[in-house]
Amino acid sequence: MTIIENTGRGPACPICNSTEYGSCGHLVADFDRTYGECLGGEIYDRQAEFSDLAERAFLLHLNQKTVLSVKKWGLDELWEITLGKFDPDEEYVELDGDIFQRVLIALLKDSGAFDVREGLIDPGGPSMTSWVSLLFADDPSKVIDMAINKLKIELH
Ligand SMILES: [Zn+2]
Fold it and tell me: How far, in Å, from the CA of 28 to the mean position of ligand 1?
């Protein structure tokens, strides 16, 4: 269960103030930053749309041996790491999960989502504590559509 580290209390949705933030309809994303996992929110079923776009664009440039000029949201770092790990004998690229998650969060925030400012943790047990990021918006699916469009533009 996610709590605010300083107070030990559960976080509330910053839009409607509900402590049932998983079901109030405003949750864009619930990310476990320590394990690089998406735990919920509107993005849960749509995260692959983002990774597919990035993987396809990266692979195209890697196969053509052209440089992808990207700067926003830390995409340049994701590109550099992917470039360094690329095996020309393989037909696919694998995105670094941590960096991809950072890019996704920056992109979602740039598209109108906002995060809970307090430090959030999920104290799973001794040495199992996760760092958590929660993102919210009035209309989560609109934010995700906008983020997809922004990513498409940046990758072209
Ligand atoms: Zn809400």
Answer: 10
